[in-house]
Amino acid sequence: MSVELPRGFHEHVTNIGIKDTTTDFTIVIADSVCAAAGVFTQSRFAGPSVIVSRENVADHSARAVVVISKNANVATGDIGMENAREVVAGVATALSCDVADILIASTGVIGRHYPMDKIRAGLVTLPRSPKGTSADEVARGIMTTDTVPKVAQSPVVGSKARVVGVAKGVGMIEPNMATLITLIFTDADISSPDLDRIFRRVIEHTFNCVSVDSDTSTSDTALIFASGVSGVVDLDAFEHALYEVALSLTKQVARDGEGAEKLIEVHVDTARDHEQAKTVAKSIVNSPLVKTAVHGADPNWGRVAMAIGKCSQYLDINQNTVVIRFGTQEVYPTRVGDAGLAALSAYMRGAEVRIHVALNIGIASATVWGCDLTAGYVRINADYTT
After folding, report:
1. How far is CA 362 from CA 77, 271, 282, 316, 355, in A?
2. What is the pTM of this model?
3. Does 378 score more than 80 pLDDT?
4. What percent of the chain has pLDDT over 70?
5. Same domain, 205 and 322
6. Last residue of some domain: 201, 225, 255?
7. Looking at 179, 206, 218, 367, which residue is catalytic?
8. Which domain holds residue 283?
9. Is residue 250 among the annotated active site residues?
10. Residue 354 CB-half CA count within 13 A
């Protein structure tokens, strides 16, 4: 079932020859300048697209976003920055927009300049008023090594407004802000301060809780635009809809991790605070030993204990009071017999594996998502640029 962009937005998705014959140049434009917010990678190698978008969304408003797929334009020096600004200026000219109202995101191989001759030729062909309304096309246009497009939508209860989001990303994913590239659109009328505040809060509990391989991308970009066409909405209802969309995209990203065969969900509760719960959960989901155990359907709970224990900064974690479960089955401190281990192995052969850890310190909790580590991940990344 196809997903349409919310009212007030249009898209244009095309191929301009960045790398191959698949779509690689995507634009989404609002009918007018609207409220917007962005959250970006904290990498010290942040790409020019991140830097330019940070500048242009600083006033919490924007008109359009352009995404270049299959070339990150990262670590490309002054020329890379000049090229990013030229792309933004070219899109602004084509769409009759102010340069400061255009945001940009790039994804793909690091260390390679944009093929500016192809991009300049593509800019000339852009329609002045894009007519497309397909969120599915936007999701396909921003893909790199993704195996499927990632789209989610949710109504805002009590209104005619919707929230629609797309995402790309399957590798180099350990967000320290948002995730990979995520674009979210709504026709709700939300003030800029409210949009920014709610967006950041939702990101902290969704995109910031996904990890495929513990590597933070240089290009992570999460953007949200609110056209306001469908009028004022209840803020709690809006936040719930945004959370549902972000959570769906988060799980889709984890499930589609490079070479992934299983989704891993790690829930840590009774922690001192949310930061402690999230840190312990990330330690578990990022452990290569845990990830390979899940891949092999091996209920080796000792690897989970190891991942908890290496969070040595938390002196209040006591191994004598921690409880570890695979699914709903306690494996520590209550030991499981051979029959129980066989049942757990059967459970772990499923498409989703849940690990639950109770620290028994306080009342805080966190849930994170990741995927198993397979030979396919190694093969994809061993051959990535060749």
Report:
1. 48, 5, 18, 10, 19
2. 0.84
3. no
4. 91
5. no
6. 255
7. 179
8. 263-382
9. no
10. 9
